[in-house]
Amino acid sequence: MEEVEKQYRNSANLDIRIRIHQQYSENKTDWHEWLFDQYRIGSGSRILELGCGNGQFWLKNRDRVPDSWVITLSDFSSGMLADARKNLGDVPNICFREIDIQKIPYEDHQFDAVIANHMLYHVPDRPRALQEIRRVLKPQGVFYASTIGKKHMLEINTLLKGFDPELGDVLTNVQAAAFGLENGAKQLAPFFHQVRLKEFPGGLRIDDVQAIADYILSSGTEIKKILTGAKLEAFIQYLEKEKEKQGGWIHITKATGLFEAR
């Protein structure tokens, strides 16, 4: 959890990770707009987002959010909340609150919808967090949780291993192993009687190898210690050669989706 707190103290690393998907996705539908299209939230609903990050989801969908929604954006990181406030400005029906998902500071049955996008895999005590979400949801409320799968960005490790065999497992997909497309429904089932998954299609087609290097470096302090100076320059040169072998592009698999739980 300490490494996660360092990585997401503010939105700098998150911005890099979002940017690569915005610029190089084969599916030109914006991820945040696609998410909004999947939500079935009625007029006048009270909504809680846990782990709102820098607020990009709400910024992207600002013109589509009903004025009747009452929205609380929360994050464990005060730095993230500050970035979200800065990005969104003063919106009458949005408030901000620092919240630990494992101990949500609201009475029972307060929300029509709870959202937790790409964050449950970071939570140390997920059963407790899911119990808290179920508690604050109204009986007919809905929980939306997006996540990744085991194959997400799998070519990143292949590239690292090709450059240096000792780097092959540095970015092991521990997130999907914790709460992913393959095992998320099983974890949600004890708390919700109906769980559905919808997957977002398409991968990445990248022609700028610096974007790949930046993505890797945004993944944590450990990889930053290894890929630095001359070694980083050599890795970027290696990526350029791999790009040429593949016809001027490097393809990266995406495996992302959204759980709807009631």
Automatic annotation (TrEMBL):
Any single Pfam family the record assigns to this protein: Methyltransf_11
Signal peptide: none
GO terms classed as biological process: methylation
MF-aspect GO terms: S-adenosylmethionine-dependent methyltransferase activity
Keywords: Methyltransferase, Transferase
InterPro entries listed in its UniProt record: Methyltransf_11 (IPR013216), SAM-dependent_MTases_sf (IPR029063)
Domain Methyltransferase type span(s) in chain numbering: 48-144
Protein name, entry field: Class I SAM-dependent methyltransferase
Organism: Sporolactobacillus shoreae
